[in-house]
Design a protein that fits this description.
This protein is of the alpha+beta class and 199 residues long. The chain has six helices and twelve strands. The longest helix is centred in the first third of the chain and has 21 residues.
Length: 199
């Protein structure tokens, strides 16, 4: 009797190489590589995001924690961290650094849908630029969120101490070195304190 064993090996993908996968292949890859943050564009291009460094990691957690605490108090929906995947209406699979979904939309999902990549767009997303990130793909990702019915999005550029605010059918607003951000009517009463993010 033969037994088949598999050994994990690292694969380096040059930035000039584009790998495309079907939705089914992507789900298999994501399940087999839970330690990686994988995304897939609407065109099927696989995006492998490396783990964050310590600086980015604790700042991300600070933001996630503030959103979680507000949501715990208001009970208006569900808050998610960066390991949560969303299957957007355009076919892309994305994992924002932090996100939130209104309770009634969450309640509309089946138990099976809640287990995998959520088949909807969040109401609110946050993307945080790490020092190695290029702004162009992050801005494209934010525009994609808006085109897929995300209501409010924040692109936090720590390098330049700026925040780009994305709203449905509006021009992008750029804030220079803000101390706080308002959740507006999407996250009523929520104010994000950026002290630790800029610190």
């Amino acid at each position: 009797m033969m037994t088949q064993t598999s050994r994990a090996i690292a694969v380096n993908i040059p930035p000039t190489l584009t790998l495309t996968v079907t939705r089914e292949q992507f789900v298999e890859l994501a399940i087999a590589n839970r330690e990686l943050q994988l995304e897939r564009t609407a065109q099927g291009e696989l995006i492998v995001n490396p783990p964050t460094g310590g600086e980015t990691g604790y700042r991300n957690l600070d933001i996630e924690g503030q959103i979680w605490l507000w949501n715990r108090q208001t009970k208006l929906g569900k808050a998610f961290n960066s390991s949560t995947g969303f299957h957007l209406p355009n076919g892309a699979d994305r994992s924002p650094d932090a996100s939130w979904v209104r309770q009634e939309r969450w309640d509309g999902l089946t138990p099976k849908q809640k287990e995998g990549f959520l088949p909807l767009s969040p109401d609110f997303v946050v993307e945080i630029r790490s020092k190695s990130d290029n702004m162009k793909p992050l801005r494209e990702k934010m525009k994609e969120y808006m085109e897929n019915q995300v209501r409010l999005g924040w692109l936090i550029d720590r390098k330049n101490r700026k925040v780009e605010i994305y709203r449905q059918s509006q021009n992008v607003e750029v804030l220079e070195n803000p101390g706080t951000l308002s959740g507006e009517d999407v996250l009523p009463g929520f104010i994000l304190d950026l002290t630790e993010v800029w610190g």
